[in-house]
Amino acid sequence: MFKYFEPNKIFSITSRAPKYVLTLFIIVLSIGLIESLIFSPEDYKQSHSVRIMYVHVPAAWITLGIFSSISILSLIGFIFKIQNFFLISKSLAPSGFIFNIIALVTGSIWGKPTWGTWWAWDARITSMLILALFYLLYLLAWRIYQDKERIYKVTTIITIFGIINIPIIKYSVDWWNTLHQPASINILSKSSIHSSMLIPLIIMTAAFALFSLLIFLMKYNTELIKIKNKGLDRI
Amino acid sequence: MYGRKVKLRFFFVTLVILILVFSIFLILKSLEENVVYFQSPSEIKNISEIESRKMRIGGMVKKNSISITSDEVNFVITDLKNEINVVYSGVVPNLFEEGKGVVAEGYLKDKNFFIASKILAKHDENYMPPEVKAALEEK
């Protein structure tokens, strides 16, 4: 069922989608920025620097989500030999990497006024830096190798190593003493973030997810055009 | 249903993941002392000998324990079970307050006395507007 797919059929949808996604992204981002920069209150303790969180936390969520997706797609693609999944993974990676860098940089900017330091080698921050290195390895693997089969093997191995890092990032703040605070938002129990701050956070997450989708569609279309240029109607 | 090769690849991937999870678990377990960013005053009480190596102690700044003189800051870090006195000379971060989290980096003089060369404020996971905080305190 997944073995063969027709680029032409998919392309007719994905080539038209970016402009709608872009419009939606601009609308959601504007609402999110107005909510988070103007309407949301300042924090009782850290005052206005809490606004960095509206970029930092969504970026971190998206980058973790994208790496998990890449890993699962690569694993399934590797076991069942589905080429399309590798192309989807390849197109997802750049925006995941960018959000990883954004999360690290905004965290650093927030850390200076709050903790009193730009950088700390604590478990959460270090594991996040390792994730960025895995993204870099993954992106480089696609550039270095020419042979398709080899690319698929190497990228799958990179994602196997990387996926083990994901639960370490998530639970680092619970397993060890870290400078980074534990999660404020819990699905099962009550969140320790006030609703007036939670709403802009969710809107910003939606905006970042749309941005990732936009970049993904543009990258994916490029891959499809490459296949079409080779004169293949299916891969 | 699935071919032999698909099954083989499936077992290969599962095996690799299991071995990696196990080995990374062992590595992190043995490195635990270095993975933790700071130690609590109770852990300091339990150490057998004072090492001259740089370390970090974290906990809460004890209420009414901060005393600031012209060239140094004295305060007490507590984890509600044990306490340790800290002396520091330098600029403290804005969020350094009594009753809030703190991490001090420096050297241990003895089990009750710590000379800090750097103070970091630890932020907790609570986010709320000042009005809500005031309302909570009234309760």
Written description of the protein model:
The complex is a heterodimer of chains A (235) and B (139). Chain A has 235 residues and is mostly helical. Chain A has two domains: 7-36 and 194-233; 52-184. Chain A is built from seven helices and no strands. Chain A is globular, with a radius of gyration of 20 Å. In chain B, a hairpin with a 4-residue loop joins β2 (67-68) and β3 (73-78). A five-stranded mixed barrel of chain B has the order 1-3-4-6-5. Chain B has 139 residues and is of the alpha+beta class. Chain B has two domains: 1-35; 38-121, OB fold (Dihydrolipoamide Acetyltransferase, E2P) (Beta Barrel), CATH 2.40.50. Chain B has helices spanning 4-30, 32-35, 41-46, 130-138; strands spanning 55-61, 67-68, 73-78, 83-88, 101-110, 113-121. Chain B is elongated and about 75 Å long. At the A-B interface, α3 and α6 of A face α1, β6 and α4 of B.
Strand order of the largest sheet of chain B: 1-3-4-6-5
Helix content of chain A: over 70%
Low-confidence segments of chain A:
none
Please tally the helical runs of chain B, counting DSSP H or I stretches of 4 or more residues: 4
CATH topology of the largest domain in chain B: OB fold (Dihydrolipoamide Acetyltransferase, E2P)
Poorly predicted ranges of chain B: none
> For this entry, what is the oligomeric state of its chains?
heterodimer
Strand content of chain B: 25-35%
β-sheet strand percentage of chain A: under 5%
Span of the ends, CA to CA of chain B: 65 Å
What's the gyration radius of chain A in Å?
20 Å
CATH structural class of the largest domain in chain B: Mainly Beta
State the separation between the terminal residues of chain A, measured CA to CA: 13 Å
How do you describe this structure in short?
Chain A has 235 residues and is mostly helical. Chain A has helices at 7-14, 17-39, 53-80, 83-114, 123-144, 148-175, 195-229.
Keywords for this structure?
heterodimer, A: 235 residues, mainly alpha, 2 domains, B: 139 residues, alpha+beta, OB fold (Dihydrolipoamide Acetyltransferase, E2P), five-stranded mixed barrel, 4 helices, 6 strands, 33% helix, 29% strand
